[in-house]
Amino acid sequence: MPQLADPNFHRSVVQLVHYDEEGAFGLVINRRAGVAAGDLCDHLEIPWHGDRRAEVGAGGPVQPETGWVLFGGAHDVPDSHRVADNVHFGGSLDGLRVLGETPPERVRLFLGYAGWSAGQLEVELAQGAWLVVPTTADVVFDGREDEVWSRVLDELGIDPASLVPTPGVH
Q1: One-character DSSP codes across the chain
Q2: What's the pTM?
């Protein structure tokens, strides 16, 4: 929302991956890290049999040296879990090795993450800093990163020009 002044999150779409009383963890799905998947995996000495030129996402400003994966379909990936229908999350090198050997059709790699301490996300929601929408695999995996924010609003029937800073959960 417009009142979220942090430039790391200007027009960001964040896939929430984990949420509990200790805090929240998510990945910005519409930013690029400027690294290709093949180059990242070469650096990690992990075979990558997917699209070597696929852009790695900038998952957020926290620990940009850490890597994460969102993938679709049912795969037996160590240390992974389902976050939505046809959207799974992994964060281990063993999981990346499995995905690198036989990448699913829908897979995205990320560096860094967005994190909130206990109660922080609730405060931001109460201040109206975030618009909450259901996750769809199509938004996570399909389309260009620079169109995701406006696409989500369009699917909700919201004109971006109508967004104004207001408190409260949207």
Answers
A1: -TT---GGGTT--EEEEEEETTEEEEEESS-EEEEEHHHHHHHHT----S-TTPEEEE--SEEEEEEEEEE-S----TTEEEEETTEEEE-SHHHHHHHHHS--SSEEEEEEEEEEETTHHHHHHHTT--------HHHHHSS-HHHHHHHHHHHTT--GGG-----S--
A2: 0.91
